[in-house]
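Figure 2 data, in text form.
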Amino acid sequence: LPNFNELPMRPGDPPHSAWGLYGDEDQTGTLNRLTDEVVAKAASDEIRNDWHLDAQKVPSFNRQAFHKNVIHKAPRIVNDDVWTFNTQSSTQWDGLRHFAYQKEKKFYNGVTLDDIHANDETTINGVHVWAQKGIVGRGILLDFRSWSLENGIEYNPFKTGSISLQQMWAVLKAQGTEVRFGDILFIRSGYIDAYNRLDQSQINDFASVMPPHFSGVEQSLEVLEWIWNNFAAVAGDQPSFECWREFEQLDPCNFTDRLPSDPERLGSA
């Protein structure tokens, strides 16, 4: 595995990318770290961590809310269900075709918008590739929510702010959690608990803010390097894994309107 400061691997590739590490045709990125050996060590435990499809009645980022239409197929006593929803309004993985390097206009392994939109049938860099093997590994929970309450640290998930790398290290140390290469990192910031305490008018007001403001993981090359050195994937309970917007001037991966710690960026790093 190349060191973070040795990336990119090829001249001309975007900063901090590792395109070609797992082959020029690879579509799974750092999920390649979930080897049979890594999975076998994690197989004894199971954690359920999904959110209801309709948990957010008014999703942020002006996204479509979940809707179920039950159609009575009269005159027979038969019903058909039609569900419409934006996958980003509930539990989901950001795929490697979701957000590109903005200056280069390229997704993981050099895939372009033209590659994806050539016709309605294109599946390149789609999550179906992940499903062929599944995402199975050792998940570790970084419970920032409990740690911050125990240590009297104020945290507002609805305002732009950061969970620093030093704080994440402190949480893991307090939990006695050992990080192993190939782990899947889950961060509990407390967003869902805070969201469930809002009334509908507060949710409407919050969702109407554009661009939205969320706290999340610190935007820094140090965080990217830490993730590169340890994890197969990262996830969190907040709408944006990374803190949203205030610190765009850092921009270490040349993004516009998106910040550097994005999960799919890490998958393509």
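Caption note: Residues 165-175 form the longest helix (11 residues).
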